Amino acid sequence: MTDVNGAPADVLHTLFHSDQGGHEQVVLCQDRASGLKAVIAVHSTALGPALGGTRFYPYASEAEAVADALNLARGMSYKNAMAGLEHGGGKAVIIGDPERIKSEELLLAYGRFVASLGGRYVTACDVGTYVADMDVVARECRWTTGRSPENGGAGDSSVLTSFGVYQGMRAAAQHLWGDPTLRDRTVGIAGVGKVGRHLVEHLLAEGAHVVITDVRKDVVRSITERHPSVIAVADTDALIRVENLDVYAPCALGGALNDDTVPALTAKVVCGAANNQLAHPGVEKDLADRGILYAPDYVVNAGGVIQVADELRGFDFDRCKAKAAKIYDTTLAIFARAKGDGIPPAAAADRIAEQRMAEARTRR
What we know:
The protein is an alpha/beta fold. 45% of the residues lie in helices and 14% in strands. The protein contains 16 helices and twelve strands. Strands 1, 2, 3, 4, 5 and 6 form a six-stranded mixed β-sheet that branches. The protein has a six-stranded parallel β-sheet with strand order 9-8-7-10-11-12, with helices on both faces. Helix 11 links the parallel strand 11 (269-270) and strand 12. The radius of gyration is 20 Å and the shape is globular. Mean pLDDT is 93; it is low at 1-5. This is Valine dehydrogenase. GO terms for molecular function: nucleotide binding; valine dehydrogenase (NAD+) activity.
């Protein structure tokens, strides 16, 4: 564990001057023997122990890694609050290319750092980490979820994540078009990895037209070979400009909605699995000004965290799926609040989440 006194100046600046502030604790982790460099950010424990996944990514700098951890941890606080979980928000990032440096030794070292927090932070999978990785981390840390069924866990949380996003899309369709069905609607999915590929299945089963893109062409090819009706386009820039696109689903990394993409969007709804889709404050208003209905990312992608939270009490898939199905009702309530208050849905969701956290702090 690295004391902030030894942190580079750019990291300290990010920590103390972030516009995503209010974090309770940030831990800088380093294990020279395994090559581990990680950041664990605990945003809030008002509702309970912070819960959030571990992202493994080749950040360009330590400051960028810290900023991502802060933003993601804050998002988890809001996500867990809106999902009705007894958990606050936290997130961890491991710096480096998982294809090159991920090892058993590194994951075990990471598990020891998480364990050193004594349960204030509960970890799980995220971009670059998988069920098998959490099985290794759990050997050193009992505050680990997202493990395999063979090791007492619930397995792949992307199944319920995609189901929740699908429910969010149905809510958007109900709000905008007066019918929750996505039959004959055209949905564009950017990123068809762990979550996106399951989302494709839900949409096709309902009779939607699906257009996809992903930087990994082999992943795209596997889906189009399995589902010949699915259309693939070259990149996200092409996807957001598809004619007659009804729904755009960002399911890769954050920042998908920005000053370049929003003006080019042809879709009337944005509802996807990616975290932190709004590149900066104000984008939510840009969407509203263009008449584009935005389903807040941390609301609709909460199916996965609902699953891993349930793992801590003895996992029951049917119980989790029933809770994830309520994302439909939650999303509809947010749209109604936004309309009533005359604000974008993202702002409405934030108000509800902040109220729940404030009430929890008062009770404590």
